[in-house]
Amino acid sequence: MESFQSYINLNRERFIAELQDFCRQPSIAAQNVGMREMAKKVMERLERLGASARLIEVQNGAPVVYGEIGSGARTLMIYNHYDVQPPEPLDEWTSPPWDAAIRGGKLFARGVADNKANLLCRIQAMEAYRVAIGELPVKIKFVLEGEEEIGSIHLPQFVAENRALLADADGCLWEAGYKDINDRPVLACGLKGIVYVELHARGAQRDLHSSQAAIVENPAWRLTWALATLKNADDHITIDDYQLHVRAPTQAEMDALKTIPYDEAKIKQNLGIKSFIGKRNGIDLLKKFLYEPTCTICGLYSGYIGEGSKTVMPNHAFAKIDFRLVPNLAPDLVLDLLKKHLARRGFDDIEVVLTETGEETARSPLDSAIVRAAIDAARAVYRKEPVVYPTMAGSGPMYPLCQALGIPAVSAGVGWHDSRAHAPDESVRIADYFEGMEFVKELMERFAKN
After folding, report:
1. Strands of 58-155, DSSP E
2. Please, which residues bridge with residue 320 across strands?
């Protein structure tokens, strides 16, 4: 441990500079900005580690960076992504999103928490291990994609075309992770599914003077009325037959909630809210957060939204909506239920556009070897009992890459409770970043023996 730590300490400034370099390269999948450049940068870093690395092309998609290194009886897949969210709104950043500025022991950049710090931390930890200790105790397979932030559109295709490369993995270290509001390390063993759609309502062939509203239908109102049928004031999703397909949590899943110390008071204070929806608390709150589906309006647009007034009646209105899914709610099923629900209410003129292919729900056994190794590693490094979530409230492509191949996965990383992923002033704490290297070392060693 001392030689491993000594190597990290000696290379501390270089490791930070490498992270800044990664973060200064834009790689915005939604806008196809900098994707090739970032993929090449990641591949070259794997090669400097000593890994056998290459870009695997996927038709019409961003390349997957694939690499192998190490040996041992067990094979550990490492999943990360090199793409990031768009940085807007730019005027809400304290420092520019691509500067990778350091302030107060934190590094601020778009994509640093989600997901470049986790990606690079793992590579640097393996470098330190190889120099200070020797050959890695497990065989590592890196799968580093460039479309996670747009729904991993082509990852199932990559898996189908490269199944032989992946199927022998014994476990997967997933891309995300953080410390909670009380600085306890959080591990997660699954993800909710997701489907993302746009609803478009259209009226006249052009915007009109608002006086025409007396005789011409306003698509903004029509969209509003349609949206109001999807969820009620009690936060219940009211799409026809939707709840019939929601699998209730098992007793084991409910029992797992009892081990999660969720500091409701601090979280509400941090978010600036007085209460959670329905004034829920305790196990009921966690059940809703982790095991129940959502229907969320992510964006609304219509007409004039600039400063001052403009008496106009828009000819187009649209909403962006995401549905977070739980077992038995598949993306195709939700899309079908939504379209039929709107049609029954006379809203069949509203166009439903699927903007991402959707992702399935994923769960890994809490007693799998990779989960046990992660728990033991977290205890050793952080000297605190880790908080183990049976599933995240978020989504990702865990199912096609892991569960569909029979590979259990656990998620852990170097974020903190205020990392602000997807928001301005995204950050990681530098101390957490270097602690994360210790965690990777311990995880590899314990997984090799578990």
Report:
1. 64-69, 75-81, 101-103, 106-108, 139-145
2. 198, 299
Amino acid at position 346, single letter: G
Written as one letter, the residue type at 350 is: I
d(CA 411, CA 349): 42
Smallest CA-to-CA distance from 263 within 387, 362, 77, 380 is with 387
Rg (CA), the chain: 23
Exposed, middle or buried by CB within 10 Å (0-12, 13-18, 19+), for 291?
buried
Domains of the chain: 2-192+361-449 (3.40.630.10), 193-246+292-354 (3.30.70.360)
Is omega for the bond preceding 156 within 30 degrees of 0, making it cis?
no
**How much is the pTM?**
0.90
83: tokens are: 């793409």
Alpha-carbon distance of 80 to 87, in angstroms, equals 20
The end-to-end CA distance of the chain, in Å, is 19
Rounded Cα gap, residues 450 and 448, in angstroms: 6
* 84: DSSP letter: B
Q: How far from the centroid of its chain's Cα atoms is residue 327's Cα?
A: 18
Q: Are strands 171-174 and 312-313 parallel, antiparallel or unpaired?
A: unpaired
Phi and psi angles of residue 238, each rounded to the nearest 5 degrees, phi first: -110, 20
- CA gap 86, 90 in Å, rounded: 10
Burial class (CB in 10 A: 0-12, 13-18, 19+), 177: buried
Token pair, residue 246, equals: 């929601």
The tens place of each residue's pLDDT in the chain, 450 residues long, gives 569 999 999 999 999 999 999 999 999 999 999 999 999 999 999 999 999 999 999 999 999 999 999 998 999 999 999 999 999 999 999 999 999 999 999 999 999 999 999 999 999 999 999 999 999 999 999 999 999 999 899 999 999 999 999 999 999 999 989 999 999 999 999 999 999 999 999 999 999 999 999 999 999 999 999 999 999 999 999 999 999 999 999 998 999 999 999 999 999 999 999 999 999 999 999 999 999 999 999 999 999 999 999 999 999 999 999 999 999 999 999 999 999 999 999 999 999 999 877 899 999 999 999 999 999 999 999 999 999 999 999 999 999 999 999 999 999 999 999 999 999 999 999 999 999 999 999 999 999 997
